[in-house]
Design a protein that fits this description.
Helices cover about 40% and strands about 15% of the residues. It has about 300 residues and is α/β, with parallel strands linked by helices. The chain has a single domain, classed as Spore Coat Polysaccharide Biosynthesis Protein SpsA, Chain A (Alpha-Beta Complex). The strands form 3 sheets. Strands 3-8-5-9 form a 4-stranded mixed sheet, with helices on both faces. A 4-stranded mixed sheet has the order 4-10-6-7. α7 (about 195-210) crosses α9, α8 (about 215-225) packs antiparallel against α9 and α10 packs across α11. The longest helix has 17 residues, at about 230-245. The radius of gyration is 19 Å and the shape is globular.
Length: about 300
Amino acid sequence: MRRTLDSLLIQTVPPAHLVFVDDGSTDDTQAILAEYAPRMPYLHVVSRPDRGVRKVGPGVIEAFNAGLAELDLSQVEFLCKLDMDLDLPARYFETLMDRMDADPMIATCSGKPFFPDPSTGVLISEHIADEFSVGMTKFYRVSAWLAIGGFPISIGWDGIDCHLCRMQGMKAISFPDPELDFVHLRPMGSSHISLWHGRTRHGLGAWVMGTPPVFMLAATLYRMNKRPRVVGAVAMLWGYLKAWAGGVKRFDAPGYLAFVRSYQLRALVIGRGRAAEQMRLRQPLSLRALLRRPVDDTGEHAGG
């Protein structure tokens, strides 16, 4: 948490508002926030009662929405959902905004996460596809976020939202650029219970997100290039199959499941990037026009 706050303090473009949601911490969170508050005039803390259990997926978005209630979105151009286990480069926010100004079709974007090897300290890529912004630093154009109806309250929300953006004719991107690489202090897919639990949860999320079986099998094989190679891949597939057999309800919206199935099957043939762009361009131009929100007369951003 201190490393995250320190990386925010050195941002070349600091946040206009930083709403910190403390939903029942039992550690030194409040004391650390009090220590940093004098250096962060934009910091506002929202405290929620401890729900008694860690609730990933829907719980994350419930906490996010509690913080969002403190903001007036009409006063800002960009919005970021940010976790407290990150170390961001100093020009992170500035660079993302520059990229979005250069391409008005980008709805959401991020850099690429790397985590330190516990034995050597060497940074290891989390192998995020370019067609998805990452959940720990979801950076959005506010008009795009509103166009998809906000984040879905569902496990797998951080993949579902990217598909919803493409359904609106917009782009979701994580940039493979050293200038935007950041350190994720706890590897994605890990869990407070065990790595197996975290990876099976990933498989559950893939099912809920609408991933077809053939694509899931291909994703499982690809996952074997990421440590732990066999255990991680098997756990992910087991989570998917268990959800399928158990009849777990999938996220759905008009046309959503058909869109995801078409995109992912196409991706197996021509690759994710080309498939994402083809699917995006098939959407009505009138929906893509929702993104076009200019900066103010001075050329400055409205904030975020």
